[in-house]
Amino acid sequence: MYEPIYTKRLVLRKFTEDDLTAVFQIFSDEKANEFLPWFPLKSFGEAKHFFERRFAEPYRRGQAYQYAVCLRSDDIPVGYINISPDESHDLGYGLREEFWNRGIMTEAGKALLKTAKADGIPYITATHDRNNPQSGRVMQKLGMKYQYSYGELWQPKNKLAAFRLYLLNLDGIENRFYSKYWDASAVHYVENIQ
Fold first, then answer.
1. Which residues, including other chains, have CB under 8 Å from residue 16's CB and lie 6 or more apart?
2. Please, are residues 65 and 11 in contact by the beta-carbon 8 Å criterion?
3. Which pairing describes strands 123-129 and 77-83: parallel, antiparallel, or unpaired?
4. Over the range 134-149, which residues count as b (16 or more CB within 10 Å of their CB) and which as e?
5. What gap in Å lies between CA 187 and CA 194, rounded to an integer?
6. pLDDT in tens, the chain (194 residues)
7. 110 and 97 in contact (C-beta within 8 Å)?
8. How far apart are CA 101 and CA 76, in angstroms?
9. Whole-model pTM?
10. Rounded distance, CA 85 to CA 68, Å?
11. DSSP per residue over the chain, as a string?
12. 125 - beta bridge partners?
């Protein structure tokens, strides 16, 4: 696990302590973190703590699929992409705003999903805030299919949000329905997504 993944323009690799400046740049970006469950980082000290909790600890536990997204030209992280180790196999990603609209997350996502499929992960889920349709377009470009929408009080921001759940089956079982968020939310519905 954690062999670097190379694409035409990118390297997906582990974050290291040498990346703390990049971690701060990624996770302090107000626009890039607007629809994520944490508040943007405010200091380098917060970045060190965030790095330890979000990356170093999972790496020590051997939990895979926590990657820095770097341009091959300089190997400096400009974003991240991950798959959670729980049964949701939730795909998460973020990218500094100045790198948006270049296909970077789609390229990184395709590479990571190829690795996940080879490793035997049966499916991937992903959610996005309805107010962040750009994230949903990345999911669609990765071949993910919309399943349903649901409401959730998002912590620690204490914000009521409406999310859309997408699913991609990697094992060929096409009739899978991932019901966790549907079952947990009193507010759930199916939208007509184009």
1. none
2. no
3. unpaired
4. ebbebbeebebebbbb
5. 21
6. 578 999 999 999 999 999 999 999 999 988 888 888 788 999 999 999 999 999 999 899 887 799 999 999 999 999 999 999 999 999 999 999 999 999 999 999 999 999 999 999 999 999 999 999 999 999 999 999 999 999 998 877 788 899 999 999 999 998 999 999 999 999 999 999 87
7. no
8. 19
9. 0.93
10. 17
11. ----EE-SSEEEE---GGGHHHHHHHHH-TTTTTTSSSPPP-SHHHHHHHHIIIIIHHHHTT---EEEEEETTT--EEEEEEE-SSTT-BEEEEE-GGGTTSSHHHHHHHHHHHHHHHTT--EEEEEEETT-HHHHHHHHHTT-EEEEEEEEEETTTTEEEEEEEEEEESSS-TT----HHHHH-S-EE-----
12. 90, 167
Q: Letter for the amino acid at 120?
A: G
Amino acid at 81: I
Residue corresponding to tokens 């200091």: 43
Task: Give the tokens for residue 158.
Answer: 């204490």
Return the structure tokens found at 119: 């490793």
